[in-house]
Design brief:
- The electron transfer flavoprotein serves as a specific electron acceptor for other dehydrogenases. It transfers the electrons to the main respiratory chain via ETF-ubiquinone oxidoreductase (ETF dehydrogenase).
- It holds the Pfam family ETF_alpha.
- Belongs to the ETF alpha-subunit/FixB family.
- InterPro entries: DHS-like_NAD/FAD-binding_dom, ETF_a/b_N, ETF_a/FixB, ETF_asu_C, Rossmann-like_a/b/a_fold.
- Its cofactor is FAD.
- By secondary structure, the protein is an alpha/beta fold.
- It has 2 domains: 167 residues, Rossmann fold (3-Layer(aba) Sandwich); 122 residues, 3-Layer(aba) Sandwich (Rossmann fold), CATH 3.40.50.1220.
- It is 26% helix and 27% strand.
- It is built from 9 helices and 17 strands.
- The strands form 4 sheets. The protein has a 7-stranded parallel sheet with strand order 7-11-6-1-4-5-12, with helices on both faces. Strands 14-13-15-16-17 form a 5-stranded parallel sheet. Strands 8-9-10 form a 3-stranded antiparallel sheet, with no helix packed on it.
- Helix 7 links the parallel strand 15 and strand 16.
- Helix 3 packs across helix 4 and helix 5 runs parallel beside helix 9.
- It is globular, with a radius of gyration of 21 Å.
- The structure holds flavin-adenine dinucleotide.
- Flavin-adenine dinucleotide binds next to helix 6, helix 7, strand 16 and helix 9.
Length: 317
């Protein structure tokens, strides 16, 4: 079985959920190894990577240098020289790392994939494109492949026979760059799960009238993140980091709840590939209903409290 390297994403030293999704996918493609850029991980995190099938955790001690993408690409390249496939989470930064690595190694690269499999020894990826109106299967013809995978598109599952991952240190010669890291200041995490990774997103648009209380309450209850339309962020009702859509964040949660959002094409482009779409809107002709799996015609001020009460009742059994 060929080596499949997964670039680990971590937050404050803790491995993120999409990394486990990527490791789960990697197990179906070959023998997974995890690549960790930065300071050495805690033993507990190495163990968690092992549970999801990583046979090795290759640490490239880059410190903060890995925040410069050309250095991150070089570090990843040094740790994946023997890998037939490299899997990354399709974030903005990782897409640049992927393409730089592909340029350096001649590997074929696909980003924003919703899945990947081996067909006749070649990697084939699945993607939804053009605001999720087309499904595309891409075959990577080169021997080496790099796949950027969207969060929430693979169900993370522990390996059937989890092993203890071995910690290996890989030294890498990092290139001189014209950029330098002068300071690293963590931005206080916004409430809840980051939007792009969240398994559930509850979004509010102009129909909220600027009051996000119910949207937040439902998101919290479902363990999800709060999203918004651009009109809502432009109004200053909620910060731009919550914006979903063409110019905002692309999300692919298992459940997307659109509250008081008309479903303009620019918004749909960022959420249409979600697993199940629920829409609440007073206008039965709102375009969001064209793509909703479940639609409720009604005022969100009436509908959301009922939904919240029913979910709470259901949880209480
Ligand atoms: C280049 C470009 C890029 C863009 N990028 C983005 C993007 O990334 N993301 C994005 O979202 N937009 C984007 N837009 C803007 C987009 O075209 C729409 O204008 C925007 O998505 C509309 O936001 P909305 O649905 O909240 O508001 P509206 O279109 O005004 O819809 C509000 C909806 O709420 C419903 N409603 C009103 N009151 C209630 C109530 N009490 N209960 C339930 N429903 C109610 C109404 O029936 C209506 O359907 C972009 C536009 C351009 C030109």
């Amino acid at each position: 079985m060929s080596t499949v390297a997964v670039l680990v994403e971590s937050r404050e030293g803790v491995v993120t959920q999409p990394t486990f999704e990527a490791l789960t996918l990697a197990r179906s493609l070959g023998t997974p190894v995890a690549v960790w850029l930065g300071s050495a991980p805690e033993p507990a995190e190495v163990a968690r990577l092992g549970i999801y099938g990583a046979t090795e955790v290759r640490v490239v001690p880059t410190g903060d240098d890995a925040r410069v993408v050309s250095r991150a690409a070089a570090a990843l390249g040094a740790a994946t020289a023997d890998a037939a496939i490299v899997v990354l989470i399709s974030t903005f930064v990782n897409k640049e790392i992927a393409t730089r690595l592909a340029l350096a190694t001649g590997a074929g690269v696909v980003v924003d994939a919703a899945g990947a499999e081996l067909v006749d020894g070649r990697v084939e990826t699945l993607q939804t494109v053009f605001a999720a109106t087309w499904n595309v299967r891409t075959r990577i013809e080169s021997d080496a492949a790099i796949v950027g995978i969207r969060p929430n598109t693979t169900q993370a599952q522990a390996a059937e026979t989890p092993g203890a991952a071995t910690l290996v240190t890989v030294e890498a010669a990092l290139p001189e760059t014209r950029e330098a890291i002068v300071a690293v200041e963590p931005v206080p995490a916004s409430d809840g799960v980051p939007l792009a990774e969240a398994p559930v997103v509850v979004s509010g648009g102009r129909g909220t009238g600027g009051d996000y209380t119910l949207v937040r309450e439902l998101a919290e209850l479902l363990g999800g993140a709060v999203g918004a339309s651009r009109d809502a962020t432009d109004e200053g009702w909620i910060s731009h980091e919550h914006m979903v859509g063409q110019t905002g964040t692309t999300v692919t949660p298992a459940l997307y709840v659109a509250c008081g959002i008309s479903g303009a094409v620019h918004h749909r482009g960022g959420m249409q590939a979600s697993g199940t779409i629920v829409a609440v809107n007073i206008d039965p002709d709102a375009p969001i209903f064209e793509i909703a799996d479940f639609g409720v015609v009604g005022d969100l001020g009436d509908v959301l409290p009922q939904a919240i009460a029913r979910i709470e009742d259901h949880r209480r059994g």
